[in-house]
Amino acid sequence: MKRVVIFGYGLAGKVFHGPLLQVTADLEVVGILTSDPERQRSAQADFPEALVTGNIDQLWALTPDLAVVAGANVTHVQLATESLNRGISVVVDKPITPDAPSAIALAQLAADKGLLYFPFHNRRWDSDYLTLKAAVNRGVIGTLHRFESRMQRFRLTPKGDWRDLTSAEAMGGVLYDFAPHLVDQALDLMGPVESVQAFARTLREVSSSDDDLVMVLGHTSGGLSYLVGSLVSAIPAPRFELFGTRGAVRVANIDTQEDHLKVGEIPGAGWGVEPADSVIELWSVADSGDITRSVEPLLRGNWPQYYREISESLHFGVPPTVTVDQAIQTMRVLDAARESVLTGHSVALTPPAAH
Q1: What's the CATH number of domain 124-302+331-353, 1.25.40.10, 3.30.360.10, 1.10.10.10, 3.40.50.1460?
Q2: pLDDT value at position 165?
Q3: Which residue in 79, 95, 138, 241 has its CB near the most CB atoms, within 10 A?
């Protein structure tokens, strides 16, 4: 049994990490760091046997094997560094660091100490993305040439928390929030990225962080990824559209695992099954030129697989699906995106960013 502490019990700690850890064999949450009284009560109710405290030294004294860094973005590097220096492997929520050099430095620290450093890119196990990849792997739409991916909400009023802060160290805004997932999936699906053009705007309040983002990634294959992250999109758009030389794929509905976790559900039997109207649409072109359309249900989402793989890595050294090296490449693309936003120009990546 590996002992786990969670740093932070807001949205990330309570909704994403906590429930997934609860259902992972051989991982035991022994401590939770939060100084907020309401969050302390919530954490104690979820993990009755754990030490819930605002004193981090009390958590170090528990000699954990794994620290889950799930607090505000500004804490990610500090807490990950301190954990590694104390001989503790880490899971770090996205964004893992403010930039690629910081991520490289943390990865080197982990390697020097013989520890593990895991990025929390859980959306590789979204129902919509798993189904999209399965369709691609069957070869039904030919060579991929354009990928359109959107994570959109409509939140007219900023919440006023750290995510809306404009300071660079706060790492607020959709470029740091949605883009790590969007870019990670684009690299995984479309291959190495050699150019980045990005546009990030603030449309709701001048004093808030960016809330509308468009990125265009140029892949070494010649393909393009068109990525949108927005908090000001009132009309739903397809989650994915993928175009190939022999057809296309569309997924309209977004994975619902987050919605279930937010209302307090714990993964169990039937987890990840999407509603019957959540489907993938496939268009394929026959040799005759005729286009046929078919509809298939989405595969089951599987966020619990993330921590199952973490457990296997800690216990047996099995490499996880998502590695820190991949996350570093994602951060390289995000660094280029920020430069593009500031300069208004496309930014070349040399060498290309590649999983």
Answers
A1: 3.30.360.10
A2: 67
A3: 95
